[in-house]
Design a protein that fits this description.
Length: 293
């Protein structure tokens, strides 16, 4: 609340949880807090003026210790967003206006690992960064970046290179102001994990995670569903794809080749509607091609 951080240790087991102040009283309002998923005792705090703090015992100590990391930030940057690593408790990422930085010692030293324009984004209007989200489900840790004009991704496999930050906006609304990013990880199948992006006035959008070729298998699993399987002559069937994994092309095949027509879409559309003109048994298949961006 405003200039302080409060902690409750009884939210799950008390009808009236109690909160204890665990911050010293920052001189500026708190803008964001995030704990390390790799070590939930570690908590990072950013003030409204961009100053960054860290506590290594925020989850357990009665009076946690706080380290002001602001003097260690890269010179001259404006801190727009930050994200602790999900893989390594020593790693944290920050984003300035156009550059992504990584620290491997909890914010004491920083290295530039990617910038807008160094990859092949296909755009020069990247916007102001608003959110970071780390994807730890692969061999490398990829970073999704939301800005006030879209979504981008930094590929962890390009660490130490100039591959930079790439567009990740196929089918995303043009100039959508991203307010937050979140990843829903499937425990059993990465192809069923999704990146969610909330926007200002443009809704919430969902995408499969970036299909980084360094992750190993990039095979797709085509799938299809319909709300019914028996239709009368003259009726329309709405058929949808449910592909597992990122893709950039699909093709429908319905046999026999007569006795129906496409009422909506065609054989390469994401969703198709078929109107049947004669009785029979029809079979449908869906094939797909994948992509890495």
């Amino acid at each position: 609340g405003y200039v302080n951080i409060w902690r409750s240790d009884s939210v799950k087991n008390s009808a009236t949880p109690k909160f204890t102040r665990i911050s010293p009283g920052f001189t500026g309002n708190v803008r964001a807090i995030k704990n390390s998923a790799a070590n939930n005792k570690i908590l990072y705090v950013v003030r409204g003026d961009g100053k960054l703090y860290r506590s290594d015992n925020a989850a357990t100590a009665v009076t946690p210790n706080w380290v002001d990391l602001s003097p260690y930030l890269p010179v001259g940057i404006t801190l727009r967003a930050f994200e602790p690593s999900y893989k390594d408790s020593n790693v944290v990422y920050i984003m300035s206006n156009n550059t992504l930085y990584k620290s491997t010692n909890k914010g004491l030293n920083w290295t530039s690992i990617g910038s807008f324009g160094n990859g092949s984004p296909g755009s020069t209007n990247f916007g102001i960064p608003t959110a970071l989200r780390a994807d730890s489900s692969g061999k490398y840790e990829d970073i999704s970046i939301g800005t006030d004009s879209g979504v981008y991704v930094y590929l962890g496999s390009s660490a130490g290179t100039s591959n930079g930050i790439w567009d990740f906006m196929e089918d995303f609304p043009i100039w959508a102001d991203v307010t937050d990013l979140e990843i829903s990880h499937s425990k059993t199948n990465r192809k069923e994990s999704y990146l969610y992006a909330s926007t200002y006035g443009r809704g919430v959008w969902r995408s499969h995670l970036h299909n980084n070729s360094q992750l190993g298998s990039t095979a797709l699993t085509p799938d299809v569903y319909a709300f019914d399987s028996i239709f009368t002559v003259g009726a329309t069937a709405n058929i949808y794809q449910a592909i597992q994994g990122p893709w950039n092309g699909i093709k429908w095949k319905v046999t026999p080749y007569d006795g129906y027509s496409y009422d909506n879409g065609d054989r390469v559309s994401k969703t198709v509607s078929l109107t049947f003109s004669k009785p029979g048994i029809f079979s449908g298949t869906l094939s797909t091609t994948g992509c890495v961006s």
